[in-house]
Write a structure and sequence with these properties.
Nnr, 2 domains, 483 residues, 18 strands, binds ligand NPW, alpha/beta, Rossmann fold, seven-stranded parallel sheet, lyase, kinase, binds potassium ion, elongated
Length: 483
Amino acid sequence: MRHAHAVDSVRSAEAALMATLPPGTLMRRAAAGLAAACGGVLDGGVYGRRVVVLAGSGDNGGDALYAGARLAGRGAGVTAVTLDPDRAHPDGLAALRRAGGRITGPDHAPAALARADLVLDGITGIGGKGGLRPRAAELAHAARAASASGAVVVAVDLPSGVDADTGETPGEAFRADATVTFGTYKPGLLVDPAAEYAGALRLVDIGLGPYLPEPELEALQHEDVARLLPVPRGESDKYRRGVVGVVAGSQRYPGAAVLAVGGALRGGAGAVRYVGPAGDAVIGRYPETLVSAGPPAKAGRVQAWVIGPGLGDDHLARQSVDEVLACDVPVLIDADALRLADRERVRARRAPTLLTPHAGEAAALLDVAREEVERARLSHVRRLAAAYRATVLLKGSTTLVAEEGAPARVNPTGTAWLATAGSGDVLSGLTGSLLAAGLSARDAGSVGAYLHGLAARHTRHPFGAHEIADRVPYVWHSVHPRA
Ligand SMILES: NC(=O)C1=CN([C@@H]2O[C@H](COP(=O)(O)OP(=O)(O)OC[C@H]3O[C@@H](n4cnc5c(N)ncnc54)[C@H](OP(=O)(O)O)[C@@H]3O)[C@@H](O)[C@H]2O)[C@@H](O)CC1
Ligand SMILES: [K+]
């Protein structure tokens, strides 16, 4: 599992750890890890390469200057550009001077950057507030130009200008090829739009671990998913493995039913029961489906319901949403059903409810503009989870799963190729199937998003949504070969 902690937690852990160590130890650890990581990103090694350190006035600049000193010690030509020469980290400057580095002011930045092989962004880290101020923004522009001419930009702890806690980018920010972060990930490194500025992530262990509280955010890795995947046992039969009911599709959109059932068949439940008017299309593609014309209340027992893809909003759709919400089993609410599900009824449910909106649907439920949700995804997914007292999976470039009282989850496997018609229908079926197989709403949401993203990454693009469903068994096997 990858963990991300809020700035306040990092600061408290740092203070507790620092009290046990000689002064300067943590910065030395950070700088050593940073310098080693820089060596790794420079093809052909450090010796003789031109490094430009952009140093702000806080400890983030200190880290960058100390790392610059180490790189100079390994034979790099290092120039530090201090944003404010009178306030730059004095010990860091002294270390760099001793190692043979040059120190200059912002006026000389364009010339230095034009020849750089490597740029270290040490303007702000977790102490940054708001978008970059004008002089720092100019350096970010100059670094972008250097990057376009082939320099590698490495952000120190965070790309300067992104919000560490929220993943928001309130103004100008650095764009990095890689970010070397210290002690723990920060939410802003994992959540878009900021995550897009961070490039490849590298964590340097500085010993904070024992002092960190519960994370703000976590991201499942292969081994976590392998542990959570439902695996049939010797005594399993199709009912014990779980039956997932799918209420989807309409005369107008039969394809949504086919895609949701396609996802559901690949999510580990023992059987898929389809309820709705698209039974012929579903059976034509997936003859193993148990089909009934409806309504859901008469369809027979299921361990979880998925309702919404292509459902429409006619009388039948409303009745189906009512009946499904009345069931005492987990329910996944997607697409059209999000609009039809009464908030108070969802809040009153005792069995788990999982809402799976994209940004536009989440915005409509919260009565805000879509751009607001996209700008601050983490806070909006949390607001929605609180408003509905439910688990919420917010789809998008970095899919998030939130539930009150637990760390939010961010999906690390997403790809922009998933922005294709019907992709959400497959996800809802797949995730509902995991619910029926016994996973909690939070686990089902995050495992569903993980497999869905991974399947897309392993499908040749451009692809149609049904191909994602077809690819799930392959990635399931790659995550858990023995299951
Ligand atoms: N915690 C840990 O465990 C460890 C932390 N470590 C390191 O310390 C870093 C935190 O250092 P920090 O607290 O000194 O703050 P930092 O990020 O340098 O920023 C403050 C400076 O930025 C400026 N500034 C602010 N906003 C700005 C803006 N929009 N645009 C432009 N400038 C802006 C602000 O200016 P001021 O407001 O003072 O005028 C001030 O000069 C952390 O990220 C990590 O790298 C490691 O060494 C080891 C362990
Ligand atoms: K930085």
